[in-house]
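Why this split exists: single-chain examples teach little about how molecules sit against one another. For that reason, every record in the complexes split bundles all components of an assembly together and asks for one structure covering all of them. Below is a record exactly as it appears in the raw files.
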Amino acid sequence: GENVEQHPSTLSVQEGDSAVIKCTYSDSASNYFPWYKQELGKRPQLIIDIRSNVGEKKDQRIAVTLNKTAKHFSLHITETQPEDSAVYFCAAPGFQKLVFGTGTRLLVSP
Amino acid sequence: DSGVTQTPKHLITATGQRVTLRCSPRSGDLSVYWYQQSLDQGLQFLIQYYNGEERAKGNILERFSAQQFPDLHSELNLSSLELGDSALYFCASSANTSAWDMNTEAFFGQGTRLTVV
């Protein structure tokens, strides 16, 4: 939390490829890491989250991995589809607020 | 539908004016957050309220203020508006059990798109 860095800022893949987005955080006390998807002009929506007591969580084509020692977590999307095109934000708890990464614009080309 | 309601959806106003954005959190959620998102930018934290009390402030301008009422709805007041204040303003709420508990999903409203001309 407090400082969350997200990479890359843009990511272009072909349909069917995998996409990986990485985030690092600074507060070692953080223990909740959500990922939000925001389609153009719409609200951010939670797609998956992970808590510090597990290292990986999957939900169909989406997975999140967490490395607490290195203080980074990643979003993995497999078999990407055009409807996966959006901006993805990672987040981590800060002091009484959720701190968001700067976002990754994912473009999936047919 | 996230259960968080923001009004109005769109607002166009002139520089120097004052506007009020309204947010109704999900039923039972005590925490309300306000975020600003400028064009193609990230989510900038403005302010958080928990059960009527201000709990955290981000890079919120002095021209901006907010409050949370006893019924838990919140208002964000923007005054002396400038062109650069044009942005999407999101409200989010969460069911965290205390102001310090950030381990709970935040649900976002649809946002208010403010255009200052």
